[in-house]
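Task: sequence design from structure.
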């Protein structure tokens, strides 16, 4: 009997990996709960307008839902003012008017069944007119309201076929692991996982997506992307803005729920994850999940050692007087809500065991910066005269805000008669090379219409991220106003944040110039 030769298993990605090709959405109807709210004004409608201006979307209706009564025309005029403010040079009145003719508005109370009956009627009639490929429900509402809407939607059965209807839910998804789990269960009673798009706009940012491209589309970085070569990693998401008009939202959420549980942990996972088996939603989600499961869970003592919170007091930011958080509108005058967080996390996996990942984020800080820096170890010997520990270490700096760029920092010989190393950098600037920035919402909306969930966190991922921050939130909430440093607005936050770095002989990257 002849032995069968073993089957040769070839990776489907050896020759080519099928990637996202350009896609033009067919006719769609988007129903936006919170259609006149802060996010719709600042991000969502500007993004949809840009997509229209760029002829990415042509045949559609956007139906804003809100509490305040407005006619369609009033809605168009009001939103036009915001979009012109937030789109800057990209705003053209003629284009806006053409776009605005696709906007409709309906007012009502989201907890009243009447609203959904009305929505059902409008949806049916609009669908007859337009013939819809995609029916998108965008839930840009406080998280407590999401389940109310989902319940009503289920009762009114306001969707097309399962495949065509999608629900997009803004972050924060829940307020802790239990509520996120309950919300996942509720939404999954009505929608399939493939129809649920939990949005984290950081994942739509070009440089955030670029973390994976930088790591896995090149072969020179991956071999050194590990504990043997990396000394530490630093991630900053610092803002100069205060809470603005969102005091009530912020009182409920605070910085950890607002930014750490989602944007910051997403950045940690992208920098720490293993190469996925392929570039698809589930495969990438699997790798990110492994990172979340490897993030060290702290005991209460370790939370005190490895995390710092703070709240902004009055000060001066960009030469303007800024009031203290407790004086902001809709904020409790005795509030203990943190507006600053710094932490030292450890990803206890094979790749990064022992490499500290320092993160910091806060409102009303000195500069607006979103940056991820991977610092490498110093060379082992002092071959080049001057003490190399005086030289900045090699670093890969991925900047997301204010300019999207990647810089590689290294040392060269200073010209002339001296033997001295001198720090320089190689730069890649997104704007300079590609000529324009894309708003993350543009990319995410198109992906959603296409049915591509790669840039959207899955149910389990969200729950895992809450498991990381829940004990930290609880610990600091129990402390109340004890140990809540008040930092002056326009500084880099409480001094205790420096301690985290100094203990390990490091310091936060300086953004002062
Ligand atoms: C949002 C938070 O998700 O992200 C805001 O709710 C924060 O509080 C914002 O200001 C930061 O995003 P970006 O894109 O401006 O860095």
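Answer:
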């Amino acid at each position: 009997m002849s032995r069968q030769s073993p089957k040769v298993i070839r990776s489907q990605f050896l020759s080519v990996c099928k990637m996202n090709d350009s896609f033009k959405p067919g006719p769609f109807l988007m129903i936006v709960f919170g259609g006149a709210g802060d996010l719709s004004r600042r991000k969502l409608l500007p993004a949809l307008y840009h997509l229209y201006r760029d002829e990415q979307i042509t045949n559609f209706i956007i139906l804003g839902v809100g509490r305040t009564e407005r006619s369609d025309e009033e809605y168009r005029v009001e939103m036009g003012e915001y979009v012109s403010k937030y789109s800057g040079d990209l705003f053209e009145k003629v284009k806006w008017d053409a776009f605005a003719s696709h906007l409709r508005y309906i007012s009502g109370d989201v907890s009243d069944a009447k609203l959904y009956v009305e929505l059902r009627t409008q949806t049916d009639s609009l669908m007859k007119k337009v013939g819809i490929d995609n029916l998108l429900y965008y839930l840009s509402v406080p998280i407590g309201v999401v389940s109310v809407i989902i319940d009503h939607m289920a009762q009114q059965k306001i969707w097309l076929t399962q495949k065509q209807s999608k629900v997009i839910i803004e972050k924060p998804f829940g307020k802790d692991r239990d509520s996120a789990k309950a919300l996942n269960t509720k939404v999954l009673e009505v929608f399939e996982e493939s129809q649920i798009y939990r949005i984290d706009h950081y994942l739509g940012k070009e440089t955030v997506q670029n973390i994976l491209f930088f790591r896995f589309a090149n072969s020179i970085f991956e071999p050194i992307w590990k504990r043997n070569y990396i000394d530490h990693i630093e991630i900053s998401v610092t803002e100069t803005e205060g809470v603005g008009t969102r005091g009530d939202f912020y009182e409920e959420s605070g910085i950890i729920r607002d930014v750490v549980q989602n944007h910051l942990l997403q950045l940690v996972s992208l920098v720490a994850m293993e190469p996925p088996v392929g570039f698809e939603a589930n495969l990438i989600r699997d790798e990110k999940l492994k990172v979340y499961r490897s993030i060290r869970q702290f005991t209460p003592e370790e939370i005190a050692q490895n995390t710092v919170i703070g709240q902004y007091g009055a000060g001066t930011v960009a030469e303007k007087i800024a009031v203290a958080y407790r004086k902001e509108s809709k904020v409790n005058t005795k509030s203990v809500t943190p507006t600053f967080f710094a932490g030292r996390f450890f990803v206890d996996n094979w790749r990064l065991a022992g490499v500290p990942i320092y993160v910091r984020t806060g409102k009303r800080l000195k500069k607006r910066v979103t940056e991820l820096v991977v610092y490498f170890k110093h060379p082992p010997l002092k071959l080049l005269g001057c003490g190399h520990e005086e030289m900045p270490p090699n670093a890969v700096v991925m900047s997301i805000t204010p300019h999207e760029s990647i810089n590689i920092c290294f040392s060269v010989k200073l010209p002339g008669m001296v033997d001295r190393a001198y720090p320089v950098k190689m730069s890649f600037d997104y704007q300079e090379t590609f000529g324009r920035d894309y708003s993350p919402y543009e990319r995410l909306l198109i992906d959603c219409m296409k049915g591509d969930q790669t840039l959207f966190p899955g149910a389990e991922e969200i729950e895992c991220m809450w498991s990381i921050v829940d004990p930290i939130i609880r610990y600091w909430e129990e402390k109340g106003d004890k140990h809540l440093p008040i930092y002056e607005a326009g500084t880099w936050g409480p001094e205790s944040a420096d301690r985290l770095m100094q203990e390990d002989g490091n310091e936060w990257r300086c953004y002062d110039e």
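The mean pLDDT is 91.
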